[in-house]
Amino acid sequence: MSTRSRKASREEDAKHVSRRTRGEKRVEKTQKKSRFLARWFLIVPAVLVLFSIVLMSWYYEPAKIWYRETRQERVLRETLAGIQDYNAELRDELASLETTVGVQDFAARELGLVIEGDQSIIVTRNGVPIREPRTTREEVIASIPQNARPFGTWTYFLDTLFDIE
Question: Out of 19, 82, 127, 139, which residue is the most buried by the measure of CB atoms under 10 Å away?
Answer without folding.
Answer: 82
